[in-house]
Amino acid sequence: MAAPMAAAVARGLRWAFRAASAGPPSRRAAVLLESCARCSGSGSALGHILGLPSERPTPALGRHPPPVATSREKQARMVRGRPDQPAEPKVLRIAIIGAPNAGKSTLSNQLLGRKVFPVSKKVHTTRCKARGVITHEDTQLIILDTPGLTSPMKAKRHKLEAAMLTDPWDSMKHADLVLVLVDVSDHWTRNSLSLEVLKCLSQFPHIPSVLVLNKVDLLKKKIILLGLINELTEGIVNGKKLKVRSEFEYNSSSPAKTVLKVTQTPPPENRARESPCQLETDKAQEGSSLDNSSDVKASESSLDTEAREQKPYKYGDQKNRKGWPHFQDIFMLAALNGEEVDTLKQYLLMQAKPGPWEFHSRVLTSQSPHEICDNIIREKILEYLPLEVPYGVTQVTELWEEGPSGELIIVQNLVVPRKSHKLMLIGRRGALISRIAQEAGQDLMNIFLCDIRLKLKVEVKS
C-alpha cells in the first residue's frame, strides 16, 4: 500500500469514524469498514483483506516510454551520452531483489511501461543484472533488475554463470532503496524470506527497504495477508510494532460469519483522553473474499499498532529468522496485470532525492539491442522446453541488419548438446521453432517499434 500500514489504517479509522457517525446505526459498521479501505488508497491492504472492489486505476504516469535503438552503436551512444537533465534533477536507484520467479522482471517491465526484461515461469530467466530507466518530469528512476538470489549449489545445478551469484549484491551497493519481492501465491515459500535475501538485507542495513507482496490476485482468502505481513516483518513496520491475531474455529452447522475488529492503540500520552476505535461487522455476505468456505468461521481478526523504540538488530542467527524488522513500507500488488503498480511507481517518484541523472531521457534500458534479443528468445525457449533442456541451449547471432524497407532482419543459430534436444526444439513439422520465432518477433517489434524478420536455426554442438 501507499503508506506505512500502521499510519494508513490509523488515518482511515479516524476519517471513517467521523464520516460514519452521522449515518444510521444499522449502516455504521459497513460504512466504517469501507471508508477505512477507501482512505488507505485504492487496493490498500485493508481493502484487499475485506475483499472490496478496487477503485478505478489511475492513468499511467508520464509519456509513452521510448523505444530501444536497433543499432548497437546508436544505443551505446545514447547510454553514454550526456543526460538532458533539468535545472534541479532528482534521482532514485532501486534494487529489486527476491527469490527466483518472484516476479522481479515482470514488475520491472510494468514500471517501465515496455517489456525489456525476459519473463517466464521457469526460474533463473534473468541471467545478469540490467538497468531500466524511468524519466518523469524532473525525476529519473533507475531500476536495477537482478537475477534471483540463489545458492551456489542451485547455480551449479542449472549451469548458471558466476555473475548470477554476485550481481544482486553488486546492485545493492549502488541502490538508494531496495524492493524485496515476495510471491504470496507460493504457499511453500511465502511465510519467510529466503536465507539469501536475509543475508543481503543484513549486509546493507543502512539502505531503506520496502516489502512488496506480489501476486495477491491469486489468493482466494485475503485474510492470509495479515499473517504473512506479521511474519515477514517480524511484527515491525517503519519502527512501529504490529500485532496481528487471527483465530478460526470450525462450525459445521452454520454458514460463514465474519467479525473484523481493527484497533489502533494511541501513543501513551494520548491514551487518557482518546479511546481506541473499534469496528466490528457481525455478518458478512456469502461469497466474501475473506472466507469462501461455509465450514469455517473467522471469529476474530485484529490489528493493533503502537509506537515503540526499535531494538538493535542482531545479524548473526539468520537461519532461524523468517522476516526483516526494518521495512519502512509495505505494498500489495499483482505485477502481471499491473494492479497497483502505478501506486508503487508514484511512491518511488516521491522517494527520489536531488541528484544528477545518469541517462538521457530517451534511454529506456542500459542493455544493447543484441542482449535484449537474446533474452527474449531465451524466454520463449524456457517457456516451451521441458525440465533442464533449455538451460543447455547456446545462442549465436549470425545476421543483424536493416532490410530494404527499414525492417530489422535477425538470424540466430540455437546450438544444443544432443540430437534429441534438437528434435524437441524444432517440434513436429517445425511447429515449435516457428511459434518461438513468431512470439519472440512480436515482443521485439514492441521493444524496437519497427518490423522484425526473425529466423531461428537449430543445430547440434559438434
How many strand segments? Answer: 15
Sheet-strand content, in percent, reads 15-25%
Distance between the termini: 54 Å
Q: Round the mean pLDDT to the nearest integer and report it.
A: 75
Mind describing the biggest β-sheet? 7 strands, mixed
Q: Tell me the structural class.
A: alpha/beta
- From the alpha carbons, calculate the radius of gyration and give it in angstroms: 25 Å
Helix proportion range:
25-40%
The shape is globular
Number of helices: 13
Low-confidence stretches: 1-50, 55-60, 154-166, 246-312
Briefly, what is this?
This protein is α/β, with parallel strands linked by helices.
Description:
This protein is α/β, with parallel strands linked by helices. Helix content is 31%, strand content 22%. It has 13 helices and 15 strands. The strands form three sheets. Strands 1, 2, 3, 4, 5, 11 and 12 form a seven-stranded mixed beta sheet that branches. A five-stranded mixed beta sheet has the order 6-7-10-8-9. A three-stranded mixed beta sheet has the order 13-14-15. Helix 1 packs antiparallel against helix 2 (25-39) and helix 11 (369-384) runs antiparallel to helix 13. The relative contact order is 0.16. Residues 1-50, 55-60, 154-166 and 246-312 have low confidence and may be disordered.
